[in-house]
Amino acid sequence: MHDRGRASGGGGEAEERRASLCAPPYARGQLQGSGDGGLCSLRRLRSQAGGPLLQPMQPRRPLQPRPRRGVTHWSDEAYRFPLQKRERLWLAVYGCKLTAVNFLSVKIASSDVGFPIHVYGTIIVRDSIDVRFVYHFRRDSNNCQLINSEAESLILTGPKRGLALCGDMYVETDLKMKDDLIQDRELSKGVISIRSASTGPSVTGYTFQTKSLATRLSTVDVSYTVVDRALEGTIAVEVLQGGFHGKIAAYTADMKYMLVLYDSEEADAMTVDDYGLLELLRPVVSVYVKDLLMIAAVTSDGKSERILFTPRINTRDECPLAVGATKLHVKLSWSVMAP
């Protein structure tokens, strides 16, 4: 028992000697010159302080990135805010200056085998936002599209998000021609690049361009428009009353080319899902921030109506659209594409 208590006392003295060496300067000065190595004085200081002199070490707070004065970079703070505040941060730094692309049409400008032809395959687009491809045309050999002339465009079924031109953009074609007599042949396979610096600012906010891809059996023309200071508009159309048979298209005051959002005659276009929403071929459109977006509906018997939307950053708009005996409800969500 005596040895155990001595060993225990020796351990306590060793601990206090280590504490005396690590004590703060004011305590270390008071401990100097004491014959017991400062242990008694250390005990006296501890009793006066009402607790141990050496407090347990607190973990340091991690250093936070310090933004420039008056500006908070969206990439540093994006994880702290929901999407609405994140877009405001992005606009505070860059403003609405992002350039986007709307693909208007893809046509078989020439064919060495003549017309008509049954076309299937894929057309995909890659931009700098995401390296994964975005489909604009996707059909298998059992669902070919009949092309009767060079003036007829492939039916585009995308994109599902806005396409940003903050870097180079690539359009990859892999089209085949179905032939019942012989084996299917390759119609067009290649890559078209769209340079981000190839276009300057436009007065109207839109720059129309066409690029061609010549391959062994055909020449494909890809027409698109570059949109300055673009906002991404995501469109949804709900059928409230009746059944809609016809087309729904989107265009702007300065971009007269109509983008077909829905066509009831197309086999791929579903009428209505379980929630009453039309399955749109192209639910996303990029619009110049100072332009007006128009949604037009035309029925199969020739009746037509349209509604207008003003692009506004980080907002949602809703508007009824009655055409003939059909009542539609159009919803539109505006957002900023962050590079």
From TrEMBL:
Stretches of Low complexity bias are at 52-61
Which segments carry the region annotation Disordered?
A: 51-70
Q: Name one Pfam family in it.
A: DUF6598
Residues covered by the DUF6598 domain? 101-331
Q: Which residues form a coiled coil?
A: none
Q: What is this protein called?
A: DUF6598 domain-containing protein
Q: Which organism is it from?
A: Sorghum bicolor
The root-end lineage is: Eukaryota, Viridiplantae, Streptophyta, Embryophyta, Tracheophyta
